[in-house]
Structure formats: C-alpha cells, structure tokens
Design goal:
Elements lengths: L5 H7 L4 H19 L9 H7 L4 H4 L6 H4 L7 H22 L1 H23 L9 H17 L6 H22 L7 H17 L9 H22 L9 H34 L4 H24 L10 H27 L11
Length: 350
C-alpha cells in the first residue's frame, strides 16, 4: 500500500485561487445579465444571444468568440448554482493536482471544445451556453490523473474519488439523454477534451513510464484529428445573425420615429388651431418632421436583407409597408394644407 500524494498536493496549493476566481467570474456575469434584463430563474434566448451564447447563425457568421463567451453564460439561477457546485467540487481537486495555470487551460480549452462539438451537433437548432462543458473537462482531467496515479494512492481514496467522479459524469450525461434542454454534446466534448489535456499535462512525477509517453502521443494525435474533423463539418448557418440584428435595430428605430412623429403631429395641429402658424408653415413642418423621417426609415428598411429564413423577415415586410404608408399619408396631408383656403378645416392625422 503506497502513501497518498494528497498531502503534497494540498501543500502546493492549500487554497484553490483559480477555482474561486472562475466561480466569481461566472456569478459576476450572471449578475450583470440580470441588470441587463435577464430573468433570475430563466433567461430568454434573445438575451443569451446578446451576451454571446453559442448559435450557428451567429457563431458561424464570423463571431467565433462565442465558443468562449458561451461558457460563462447561464440560463437561470438553478443552472448557475448546479454548475458552480460541480465546479467547486471538481475544481478544487484538479487545480491542486495540475496547478492553477494548467487548470485554467484545461477549463478554457475544454469549454471551447465542448462548444465546438455542440455547434456541429446542434447547429441551427438550439442556443447554448453554460460552464458545463468546461466543468466536464475538469472531471475528465481528474479521472485521468487519478487513474495514472492509482498506484501511488491509498486504494480506499482512489476508489472513492475515481468511481465517484465516474458515477457523476455517467449519471449527468445519461440524464442529458432523458431530460430535454440539456446540451449533452457540450458535456461530452468537454469531457473528452479535458481527459486528453489531463493526460498531456500530467505532472512530472507521473510521466516516468514509456507507456504514458506513448499514450500521450496517441491521445494528442487523436484529439487533433477529431478537432480537424469538427472544423471541416461545421454547419452552414440557416441565416446570418448580423442581418437579423440589423433588422431588429431598424425596427426599434422605426418605433422611436413613429412615437416622435405622432407627438410632432399633435404639436403641429395644436399650433394650427391656435392660429400661430400658417397652412404653408404647417405643411413644411409635416414634410420635414413627419413625412421625411418615415421616408428615410422606409429606405433604410428596404436596404436590409429580405432572406425569408430570417426570424424577423415578416416583421420587416410589415414595417416597410407601415413606414411607406405613413410617409405617403403625411405628404398627402401636407399637400392638402397647401391647397386649403385660410378658413378651411384641419386635416386628419395620417
């Protein structure tokens, strides 16, 4: 029976600073999202996408940074709490085993690897986010370390940690096939990536065997081939997220223009009833401050993509028709004012 390496690990890093930092960072992002309009128990996909969730129409549209940002986003307090508990349980062990720098590398690369597999598997079907891919990477590295170091540990300690980690990983992945809404592809991708990284970055006192060196080389080669295969099978985005965002921005601007134009129309009519402005002056104001903004909005909307696959495609067509109708009605009202005698009635709102 060999002595356990745990005392040496704990002396090398008695407090896991990187684990604490990652938990604090995830919580901070969640709080910032709450302040930005996200829900406490559930965040809608639109909010997640704004903050950097993984989704083929956005990620494969050139926003590859989402493979990293998505691992710090959570869809609600329960999602965050469960992930942070798992991160604390596994992270404080793996950080002590590998050191803070290698632990951080395992966490980040596993998260990206999990999100890459999720992108290929789910593609246009789901918006994904969460730290679970990175956390499964930590557990993959933990199991590899424990297996290689099993002869240097007390058997009771090895069985408790190794089979406990295996049970947690197997049950969680199994639940992903039963419970809808769980991104199992991110879990599996992160777990496999973490296992490979754990093998490649084993501490020096565990790398003495030639079998370990051969295993490291084969695992590294296999992992590189898998990543290459994923990169060559990325899904074609169903639509371009940047085009969708451009439409949404113009729709918001049209809403603002509409409110301002309605207010301005009322002001012009009030001034006309008071007799403080002439019909020609009223017509000029309507042209400049009501008709022209609607016309400019219609022109901007018309320059946007008309891809029918865009989620806001129908709204775009409705907005163009509305802006054009309001512009033409306002111009007609202005022309009516110019041809009215001084004592004629006021035109109705367009």
């Amino acid at each position: 029976m060999h002595a356990s390496p745990t005392p040496r690990i704990e002396l090398r890093a008695p407090v896991p600073p990187m684990t604490r930092t990652l938990i604090a960072l995830n919580v901070l992002v969640f709080v910032l999202m709450l302040l930005g309009g996200a829900g406490f128990w559930h965040s809608p996909n639109t909010v997640q996408l704004t903050w950097g969730a993984n989704f083929a129409p956005a990620t494969a549209d050139g926003q590859w940074w989402r493979l990293g940002s998505a691992m710090f986003l959570h869809f609600g307090a329960v999602h965050l709490g469960m992930n942070m508990l798992a991160l604390w349980d596994g992270g404080k062990l793996v950080e002590r085993m590998f050191g803070s720098a290698r632990f951080l590398l395992i966490y980040l690369v596993s998260g990206i690897g999990g999100n890459l597999l999720s992108l290929v598997v789910q593609g246009n079907q789901a918006v994904s986010g969460g730290a679970s891919g990175a956390i499964f990477g930590i557990y993959g590295a933990l199991l590899v370390y424990l297996w290689v170091a099993r002869h240097q540990m007390q058997q009771v300690e090895f069985r408790w940690l190794f089979w406990g980690g295996m049970l947690f990983s197997a049950l969680t992945i199994g639940m992903g096939y039963v419970i809808p809404g769980i991104d199992n592809s991110a879990h599996i991708g992160g777990f496999l990536t973490g296992g490979v990284l754990g093998l490649l970055m084993l501490p020096a006192f565990l790398r003495g065997s030639p079998a370990i060196t051969i295993s490291q080389a084969l695992a590294g080669l296999a992992w590189a081939l898998v990543v290459l295969g994923l990169l060559t099978h990325l899904p074609a985005p169903k639509y371009r997220w940047r085009q969708e965002v451009a439409i949404q921005k113009q729709l918001q601007k049209l809403n603002q223009i509409d409110q301002q134009a309605q207010h301005k129309w009322q002001q012009i009519m009030l001034e006309g009833r008071e007799g403080s402005v002439s019909f020609d002056e009223m017509a000029a104001q309507i042209d400049a401050q009501v008709a022209t903004p609607y016309e400019e909005s219609f022109e901007k909307l018309s320059r946007l993509s008309e891809d029918p696959k865009l989620p806001s495609a129908a709204l775009l067509e409705q907005a163009k028709a509305y802006a054009l109708k309001r512009s033409e009605a306002s111009k007609a009202a202005a022309d009516q004012l110019r041809h009215l005698p001084f004592k004629a009635g006021r035109p109705a709102a367009p």
